[in-house]
Each structure stands twice: as structure tokens, then as C-alpha cells.
Write a structure and sequence with these properties.
The chain is an all-alpha fold and 95 residues long. Helices cover 25% and strands 0% of the residues. The protein contains two helices and no strands. It has helices spanning 57-63, 65-81. It is elongated. It starts with 56 loop residues before the first helix and ends in a 14-residue tail after the last helix.
């Protein structure tokens, strides 16, 4: 981060997470390099009406929410600490 009006740079912790969902959302310009695109295909038109084979799955997820989120954040942190590797994906702006 650069201090406004100065040439000095400082390091700051990023403690924000912004999540956006929608239909046909496009990320443009410099934000494209800071966005993680995800698409989850439930293979059905109304996924909110699906029935799970495992009884009590929703209740289990609600009960274990903190543990499940911690696991997700652990994966994201490990990916970040590994330098956000891009193995086979080559983007136009990557030299």
C-alpha cells in the first residue's frame, strides 16, 4: 500500500473478504487479477429443493459451521502462502 502523497510503501494485513454472486457478472480491468471465479454446478434447476442421501446433512453443516469454515479458510491460506500457483492456466497478463 502506498501512503497518499508520498512515495513510501507500507505493508498492511488484508482482513476483508468480499463475496458477490449473480448471473453473468463480469470482472474487468485490474480487479480481474484480484478475483477468484467459482462456478458450482448442482446439475439441477432448483438446487434449493434437492434431497440429500445423507439424513441430517443440513443440520450437521449448521452444527459444524465453524469447523467447516475453518477448513475452507485453511485451504485459502495455504494456497496464498504457496504463492497462488497457477499450474496449467496461463493468463494474458502473466509474463
Amino acid at each position: 500500500m502506498r501512503i497518499l502523497g508520498k512515495s513510501d510503501t507500507i505493508d498492511v494485513d488484508c482482513i476483508q473478504l468480499v463475496m458477490i454472486n449473480g448471473v453473468n457478472i463480469r470482472v474487468a480491468n485490474d480487479l480481474a487479477s484480484r478475483a477468484l471465479h467459482m462456478y458450482i454446478d448442482p446439475r439441477m434447476e432448483n438446487p434449493e429443493n434437492r434431497n440429500f442421501k445423507r439424513q441430517g446433512l443440513i443440520d450437521d453443516a449448521r452444527r459444524d459451521r465453524a469447523e467447516l469454515l475453518a477448513a475452507c479458510f485453511t485451504i485459502a491460506i495455504a494456497y496464498s502462502r504457496a504463492g497462488c500457483p497457477i499450474d496449467s492456466l496461463r493468463l494474458a497478463w502473466v509474463q
